[in-house]
Fold this protein.
Amino acid sequence: MLPLQALPQAGTALSLPQALGVVGVVLPDHKPLLSLVTLLGAAVAMGNAVVMVPSQRYPVPALTFIQVLQASDLPAGLVSIIPGARDQLTAALANHNVIKAIWYWGSPEVLTEAWFGTMHHSLVIRDGF
């Protein structure tokens, strides 16, 4: 990594993509398969393991997709899908010390709890499609 003084010019920012380790992903209820494939592909391509909470309303696409992944050459444990109540699972992911980042779609109240639960060791990203 370049030291800050070795950057080409003042005011330049340098972004070096690095794997975080384990990333939590909480999928939205709309476009569940599209969001699963998009977020999973990006996280795994960066070298992260993924713990994913599928759409609470439509969990079947995620559970079917994990069967496809289990039959592929991906290492066991690289992708885990945990169906259940979104808010409780988000809080559990936020308070787990192995999870280094969370992509979250859900209520602002749970987002606030997740943010304060992960303030010292994680990044919480709330995004939408």
About this structure: The helical segments are 32-45, 60-70, 86-95, 108-117.
